[in-house]
Design goal:
By secondary structure, this protein is mainly α. The chain is about 65% helix and about 5% strand. α5 runs antiparallel to α6 and α5 runs parallel beside α7. The radius of gyration is 17 Å and the shape is globular.
Length: about 200
Amino acid sequence: MSSRYSLARDLDEFEQMVERLEDYLLGDAMYLPIGGGFFRGSSTPQMTLGALLLRRRRLRHLRPKLKRADGIRLDVALAQHCRLRQEWTLHYDKKLKQEVPLRLRVMAGFFRECGENPRECAGAYPVEALRRSIIQEIILAMAEFGYDRRDVTAAIRPADQALRRILHAGEFIWSPVLEEVYPRRTFWWLYGGPDGA
């Protein structure tokens, strides 16, 4: 994530994800393109529940910064998300539990690369910090929704141990606008990075 942050873009993407949520929950795909149009292609994120939950957190925390009309849009999207999660709770739970191992496998590759080339490790770290943040959103949502998260929290421990070995504490790595959304205690990997990061 760059140091620039767009609340309006988060709202647009969250709405698009919620609009596709039922199809996503009932389908087999773990990553689903959102948006569309020839020019949006590569800059448009892939939908996962973790990506949706990441935007949900930011929008809820930064709601006072929204214009009134955008606040209404957010309320509608949040209500639709809640309704669909409750309607398809088993599918929602299953998708959350499938997403974490996929993200952890990619992180394991990052840790191997860090051992081989520490300079490239530093350059790739922001993507891994985002990946770990999405996993945290899943863990927090599972607690909020009353889902069993024991397997997920156990699975994340080795990745966190590897992160702690390479991480040097420092300043918040994302846009200052987001610092209030991500407390250091819960999202410690967003405060610093590997040598050279």
